[in-house]
Amino acid sequence: MSEKEILPTADRLLAVVDAMAGQPVLMLVDLVADVFITGAPKRISREAPVLILSFEGERLTPGGGANAVANVAALGGRPLPLGVTGDDAHGERLRETLAALGVPTAGLLVRPGFRTPTKVRILGGGRHQVKQQIVRYDVEDTLELAEEERRRFAAALAGWRGEASVAIVSDYGYGAVEPALLAPLRAALAPAGVVVGDSRYRLAAFAGLDGATPNEEETEALLGTRIGDHLDLLERGGRGLLDRLATRFLLVTRGSRGMSLFQADSTVHLRVSGTDQVADVTGAGDTVIGAFALALAAGASPLEAALLSNHAAGVVVMKAGTATLTADELRQAVRADRRPLEELRWAPS
């Protein structure tokens, strides 16, 4: 019987959410700090035609691969991350934030003199209005891992050996995530472990992934063509990427167009969960890979994991800023979606 004939029920998806609790997930990630500075409009500057804000507050949230870590933790999983921050204030606050979420910090290294990759967003609006992003600036130091840092990663993996059945690779191009680390990461997993990856610029360099979750822009870069509304291009390209990347499954996230899951024997398109009138898409891809991998760790099939990550993304895009969701919120999203799963669109294999 093919997977097309075994459509997961809502009860099955809810059982997977329950099984997520306490599941360990190894995570090799580029750690990023997302900083949000808010203010109320004050006046136009006399010195230049710019808006002056009256400062109201600042908050730091885990971003990039750190957001994937935070999402696994928020959903009840047990992230086991490897990553590097600087010895700066943003790095210290990021590590403290992750530790407060119950995330083990043995694999979080501090490099002296390195500026933690940071995305600073300045938002303005009236006191009782939704703040709108005005400008963003990025701190984008990159690094090359030193041998001592690789040894410390190896020591952390040795301490976790055999605990997890699933691992995440989240590469934002800042240097902490190297393709050569894929082999020791896999070796630290339990037998028949699964590695799911995402890379902003070089997914093809991570040969040997079991699955990947690129967004449409990253998929277009790999294919060398724009997809847009051309579903036939997506289907041909997605099946070709399965072979090219030597992966078992490929989940392409397409924003308001939903998601497409490619496997050797099937292709299925998922409509967007919830509404396509979103509040903020910041970090939604990190939620997707976190929920997808955690669902796999809980025993889900790739289709079940894709459905749950689709629901998870539908929740976080309705929140402002870099966000996470809880297992209860994911359960509510599953229960609220009354569309029959038979409406999933299957494409020819």
Estimate the global geometry from the Cα principal axes. globular
Number of helices: 10
Radius of gyration: 20 Å
Oligomer: single chain
- Quick check: average pLDDT? 92
Largest sheet: 10 strands, mixed
Give structural attributes.
single chain, 349 residues, alpha/beta, UDP-N-acetylmuramoyl-L-alanine:D-glutamate ligase
What does the model show?
The protein is α/β, with parallel strands linked by helices and about 350 residues long. The chain is built from ten helices and 14 strands. It has helices spanning about 10-20, 65-75, 90-100, 145-160, 180-185, 215-225, 230-245, 285-295, 300-315, 325-335, and strands at about 25-30, 30-45, 50-65, 80-85, 110, 120-125, 130-140, 165-170, 195-200, 210, 250-255, 260-265, 265-270, 345. The strands form two sheets. A ten-stranded mixed beta sheet has the order 5-4-1-8-9-10-11-12-13-14, sandwiched between helices. Strands 3-2-6-7 form a four-stranded mixed beta sheet. α1 packs antiparallel against α10. The chain is globular, with a radius of gyration of 20 Å. The model is unreliable at about 1-5 (pLDDT under 50).
TL;DR of this structure?
The protein has 349 residues and is an alpha/beta fold.
Structural topology:
Elements: H1 10-19, E1 24-29, E2 31-44, E3 51-64, H2 65-74, E4 78-86, H3 89-100, E5 108-111, E6 118-124, E7 132-139, H4 147-160, E8 166-171, H5 182-187, E9 194-199, E10 211-212, H6 216-223, H7 231-245, E11 249-253, E12 259-263, E13 266-270, H8 284-297, H9 302-316, H10 327-336, E14 345-347
Parallel strand pairs: 1-4, 1-8, 2-6, 4-5, 8-9, 9-10, 10-11
Antiparallel strand pairs: 2-3, 6-7, 11-12, 12-13, 13-14
